[in-house]
């Protein structure tokens, strides 16, 4: 039996607009082992969040559509499931912590009821049982006076408290896989550290697999076992977290790491940045998508797209300079 709880194979997700097709996720593959954490990192617009929405099938009411590939969860292809079947999987087997809790929580329901609703739906608890378990979940995620806080509405709580409520909802049914989409972006630094520590602690206690989506390399270093670096809908490097920080291969990965502020930077010095801008999804360059911004680009890089190939050390990289030189047709 496979140790992979989730396998994504050649996933392609596009948005169809009046201006044309946007290939938001363009033929990506990865897997996550039981109890492990996979980080997905990249600039805004790289396809990180669309990957998570593809896994959960959350494109109703949008122009987005998964147009190819497989998403195997515990051996079953989620893309073959009906919406009714997916509703039984979401929340119970796969849960998600969204980026901004203020817009993700229901403003018309108190926090305890929002947790209880998930418990009644997926665990068949009655109202009294669900209410009691909701209070237990609020206590588990470190909210003081949980009995009182359960009766409060989202707007009555701080950002950190709202995010803890989101975590309580996501973990209330002990899911096999938790997806955290930039769970600390809207929080101050102190609260960020508390939330990350909480997620890690609960993951270890419950044995949950985790996908951590972020643009923060510090979060990747703190939380992840393996990392997929995305750029313009493609994975450009896939490796374990130690190798990522000690021996990065792809020039984009190196640029992301170099742009991290350092305590050693002279007060008068400039922060390092990645030159250029992310190309328009309607006008992607030929060849390697990072080539127009890459200081190591060669002629071949502007002509054909390199494959994601294995390199020494066990990782994979999509690069003519640091890979094996193969190009996609």
Q: What's the gyration radius in Å?
A: 21 Å
Strand content: 15-25%
Instruction: Give me the strand/helix succession.
Output: EEEHEEHEHHHHHEHEHEEHHEE
Q: Structural class, please? A: alpha/beta
> What's the assembly state of these chains?
single chain
Question: Can you offer a commentary on this structure?
Answer:
This protein has 329 residues and is α/β, with parallel strands linked by helices. It contains 11 helices and 12 strands. The strands form 2 sheets. An 8-stranded mixed β-sheet has the order 6-7-8-3-9-10-12-11, with helices on both faces. A 4-stranded antiparallel β-sheet has the order 2-1-4-5. A hairpin with a 5-residue loop joins strand 11 and strand 12. Helix 4 (111-123) packs across helix 5 and helix 7 runs parallel beside helix 8 (189-206). The chain is globular and about 65 Å long. The mean pLDDT is 90.
Top keywords for this entry?
8-stranded mixed β-sheet, alpha/beta, single chain, 329 residues, 12 strands, 4-stranded antiparallel β-sheet
